[in-house]
Amino acid sequence: MDTGALLERFHAGEVRALARAITWVESGYPEGQDLLKRLRRRGNAKLIGLTGSPGAGKSTLSDRLIEALRKRGETVAVLAVDPSSPFTGGAILGDRIRMMRHHGDPGVYIRSLASRGALGGLAGATVASLSLLEAFGFDRVLIETVGVGQSEVDIARVADTTVLILTPAAGDAVQAFKAGVMEIADLFVVNKFDLPGGERVVQELKTTLELATARPGGWKPPVLTAVAPKGEGIEALVEALDAHYAHLQERGLLEADRLERARFEVESVIQEWGRRRTHSHPRLIEQVAAGQLSPEEAAQQLLGTGSLEGVSH
């Protein structure tokens, strides 16, 4: 199928065309890049990042969010970013089973993407896929990460609103303090609030946030509670998501979000390109290991530049 035919089907609202377009982009095909140039900056989806440690209940919360948003008549897409298989490069976890009850709903689209070695975080293909979902016309896009490594920081660079999901029994709050995630989340949700220690975690979060630096535009992140399997706390979460998006609009911060997302996408492409180049030049890596070249000299050769000055900036 050529790009023109796929675009025609895409604009006609064919889900299979959307799926094919994402596959082209994720696989790095030139046709995918052509599609992105034609479709970028179309649509006005609200991008919501959901992160938290494994077992925090992200998928169940996503499932309930989908349900609540669909009742409001909104269309929803979900990008579930999974850790990559070290052997195939594909997503390990696959489409989340709990969300599959929405599979037959034409107003819901769920897709798993592999992180593809992006240092435990998001891959550039994730941001490109977001552009396609926006162009397809979804009202909301949920980006769910596995919640390890760089994913929490990455998601904050990509989403309009970042939601950190914690639980009472896993020491999540302490880990969030240590990892600095407190600084990047726009909303906090203590899920499984019916477990022992729920109220204590809420108070710890509120106390810490009172001492934290104010967010851009003076936003004060709320601490919410939920029991996702029972649907408790979901309406309050939707209201908080709307309130944060309205705050971004009123303060003119959405354009800054878009610029940061584009910067992240370019950096991700460079990272992926560098990873592939190092694998295709084993002799260069052997020279570094033997002390014949410094890592910077090897990188200069791979990049074809004379200097790396300023590259990290």
TrEMBL record:
Domain of life: Bacteria
Keywords: Chaperone, GTP-binding, Hydrolase, Nucleotide-binding
UniProt-recorded name of the protein: Putative GTPase
Similarity comment: Belongs to the SIMIBI class G3E GTPase family. ArgK/MeaB subfamily.
Gene Ontology molecular function: GTP binding; GTPase activity
NCBIfam families according to UniProt: lao
InterPro entries documented for this protein: GTPase/Isobutyryl-CoA_mutase, GTPase_ArgK, P-loop_NTPase
Enzyme Commission number(s) of this protein: 3.6.-.-
